[in-house]
Amino acid sequence: MDRQEPTISKPDMADLEFRPTSYRGPTRPQVTNDGIVWKLSLGIGVAVLAALLLFNAYERHQDRKDAEAALRDFEKELERQRIEDERFLKENPPVRVIRVGTPSTERQRAPLRPGERCIQGERFKRIQNGWQQLPYDPC
User: How, if at all, do strands 122-127 and 116-119 pair?
Assistant: First the structure.
């Protein structure tokens, strides 16, 4: 067998593929969704906000109606009590009216007895080793 020596010839350029320096694998077509996730999230958020605003408006409307009904019931009860009170007073007039004058706020103060002293508006009585305060008998 004869041995053949390799020969250097011009390479076939059709079989070569040139890649960039930062190669990340074979190229694939990229899928673009044009921000569909953000649009969907924003739509759901706006819908939830609108639902909450509508629910809040409905609740306030119901609360207002309930308060007006309670106020009407309260006014009817007050009117009924007023009529009942007037009827009671007509059927049971007071027997007599007693007018009492306002009592005097100034109490009559008794004069100091022997062995007593007045110190800063308080009455003290002399005892064996000192003084005893008389709190219910000011001077």
Answer: antiparallel
Q: pTM above 0.70?
A: no
Distance CA(68)–CA(64), nearest Å, equals 6
Do 99 and 115 touch, CB atoms closer than 8 A?
no
State the Cα–Cα distance between residues 132 and 118, nearest whole angstrom: 12
Are 124 and 116 in contact by the 8 Å Cβ rule? The answer is yes
Question: In degrees to the nearest 10, what's the CA dihedral of 72, 76, 77, 80?
Answer: 170
Backbone φ and ψ for 102, nearest 5 degrees, come out as: -75, 135
Residue the block writes with tokens 């408006």: 57
Q: Closest Cα partner for 137 from 97, 109, 103, 116? A: 109
Q: How many CB atoms lie within 10 A of CB 139?
A: 16
pLDDT per position as a tens digit, 7-45: 888 877 777 777 666 766 666 667 677 788 899 999 999
Give the sign of the dihedral formed by CA 61, CA 65, CA 71, CA 75: positive
